[in-house]
Amino acid sequence: QVQLVESGGSLVQPGGSLRLSCEASGRILSMYDMAWYRQGPELQRELVASAIHGGKTKYLDSVKGRFTISRDNAKYTVYLQMNNLKPEDTAVYLCYAQLRQFGPDYWGRGTQVTVSS
After folding, report:
1. DSSP letter, residue 5
2. Do the Cβ atoms of 98 and 53 come closer than 8 Å?
3. What are the Cα distances from residue 24, in Å, to 40, 48, 78, 92, 98?
4. pLDDT > 70: what percent of the chain?
5. Cβ contact 2:99 at 8 Å
6. Following CA atoms 29, 34, 36, 42 in sequence, which dihedral angle do they give, to the nearest 10 degrees?
7. Residues 56-102: pLDDT tens digits?
8. What's the CA gap between 44 and 56, in Å, rounded?
9. pLDDT grade, residue 47 (50/70/90)?
10. Cα dihedral sign for 71, 53, 94, 104?
């Protein structure tokens, strides 16, 4: 069974930075598509950033220029560098992975990011 474990969430002041990590473990054969979602106080889950096969990255408009997604295929890990954090970034951040084409979806349990003064 594949498991995703997020880390790095914390309480941070506006303008601060955090780096989230998501490590996949288990029977890993490849890295296909990986992404970060977030679920805020209103419980709507939105796609924040994705790193898909072929090396392309995509970002939610509200985080573009502030967040950077990267992946280390050798370590089966995806990162989300978050700079200039704003209170509206407060959410549970969840890691998503599809590790092979047409394979199943995997989700982490989430890590809490709180941006507050």
Report:
1. E
2. no
3. 24, 19, 9, 18, 11
4. 99
5. yes
6. -90
7. 999 999 999 999 999 888 888 999 999 999 999 999 999 999 988 88
8. 25
9. very high
10. negative
